[in-house]
Write a structure and sequence with these properties.
Strands 1, 2, 3, 4, 5, 6, 9 and 10 form an 8-stranded mixed beta sheet that branches. The chain has a two-stranded antiparallel sheet with strand order 7-8. It is α/β, with parallel strands linked by helices. It is built from 13 helices and 10 strands.
Length: 423
């Protein structure tokens, strides 16, 4: 039985987590999907270049490098970088000659589940396998998706990527000559769907809910401010006279102020670029930063709302509250008071957002995370270069010493021969 090894190279973070989850089940799925007697083995190795390279060709070259090191038959890189083809969003790239594939995780949108990634990888392996082993008279590749649509045999491969992307179509683009190191590219259509998916996908990759632990100072300041406000009956009266639209306006103002202050205080806004591709990435990163922080701040708001709801129920007597309202206080009145206090406290707490852990907040911005990865790679390459220079210097010194020893030996032998010749 022929054994084929599939190597997966994920970027650090979410791609690595997903690869770890699907490694075992992917090999089992490949065994089921291929009728040939092939024993599939799946291995994976995390790589920072896959998550920080500014060009697809660099990622594909790195995949080729890993393929040679680990003796893999096929390689699929899983990156959390957004990939563009003109104004369209790229789902996957394939180099059929070198047996390399690439998946862009943000193209899966807000739900890049392990199941969907596994499905996409199976289809890419079909592409790579049948492009190199198949009889093209008996194979029909999917025209609107990745993988094989039909094989003229008892086996019929009907599971296609369009079923994974129910709201989008996948367009196959074939290049006569390699473009950015690939010869087949799959893009999402329509373009609007692709842009929506990539922003939501990058927001999910940022994992905004993980920022909450770093909001301790803001939560403390907001809760202390809100608790102090509850001592006075002014907020009690306002909660009774405000209309629903005013509650919403104050809440949106509070959320917006905290998001804006986080971006300003921690310099999260990407600066304008002259390069068109860099400018496209800048717009995507800035949009993603806003959506990521918005999700984090809304999570924070819901958390303090629950805290204040508990506080007003415990510490605000219903009789006293009812006197201020002019009628008996009910459940709705307590909810409105907690809502108003939460908004006021968030406005006050937004000032403290600049005091939060800068690294934790900055890591929520994808552009900064990619910048950090690039810097780490540069430092690593610099250290390796210095190490090689020291090794070369040591080898050169050792060779010089050997040359000196050999020269001295030759000189000694010549000196011994000279007296003998005089005799």
């Amino acid at each position: 039985m022929e054994q084929i090894t599939l190597g997966i190279i994920p970027a650090p973070g979410l791609p690595a987590e997903i690869s770890n989850k699907i490694q075992k089940v992917l090999s089992e799925k490949l065994q089921q999907e291929f009728p040939e007697k092939v024993d599939w083995k799946v291995e994976y190795q995390t790589d920072r270049i896959t998550g920080s390279a500014d060009r697809i060709k660099k990622i594909m070259d790195q995949a080729k490098h890993f393929q040679q090191i680990y003796d893999w038959d096929y390689v699929i890189s899983l990156t959390d970088l957004p990939v563009f083809h003109e104004k369209s969003i790229v789902l996957s790239d394939i180099d059929t000659e070198e047996k390399l594939g690439l998946i862009s995780l943000p193209a899966f949108g807000i739900m890049p589940t392990a199941k969907r990634i596994k499905s996409a990888m199976v289809h890419i392996v079909q592409e790579l396998y049948y492009q190199n082993h198949g009889d093209f008279n008996k194979i029909q590749f999917a025209s609107k998706g990745i993988g094989v649509e039909e094989v003229t045999s008892k086996d019929n491969f009907s599971k296609k990527i369009p079923k994974t992307f129910r709201m989008s179509k996948i367009k196959r683009i074939s290049f006569d000559e390699k473009y950015e190191g690939v010869d087949i590219r799959f893009v999402i259509q329509p373009k609007f769907n692709g842009k929506f998916k990539i922003v939501s996908g990058l927001t999910f990759a940022n994992q905004p809910w993980t920022i909450m632990p770093s909001f301790r100072k803001v939560i403390g300041l907001a809760f202390a401010t809100g608790s102090y406000m509850l001592i006075f009956n002014t907020l009690w009266q306002l909660s009774g006279v405000y209309e629903f639209s005013r509650f919403l306006s104050i809440m949106f103002l509070a959320l917006l102020s905290m998001v804006a202050w986080l971006i300003f205080a921690h310099s999260l806004w990407e600066k304008k670029e002259t390069n068109k591709s860099a400018e496209r990435l800048r717009l995507v990163y800035n949009t993603t930063t806003i959506t990521t922080l918005a999700v984090a701040v809304v999570t924070f708001y819901l958390f303090i709302f629950i805290l204040f709801l508990f506080a007003v129920v415990v510490f605000v007597p219903s009789d006293t509250f009812g006197k201020e309202l002019g009628h008996s206080a009910g459940v709705v009145d307590y909810l409105k008071l907690a809502w108003l206090v939460s908004s006021a406290a968030t406005l006050a707490g937004s000032v403290g957002a600049g005091l939060e852990n800068e690294d934790a907040v900055k890591k929520s911005a994808y552009g900064y995370r990619q910048y950090t990865r690039s810097k780490e790679l540069e430092e690593e390459e610099k250290r390796n270069k210095e190490k090689r220079s020291k090794e070369d210097a040591a080898n050169s010194k050792e060779n010089d010493e050997k040359d000196k020893e050999e020269a001295m030996k030759e000189q000694e032998s010549e000196e011994k021969e000279e007296p003998n010749s005089n005799k």
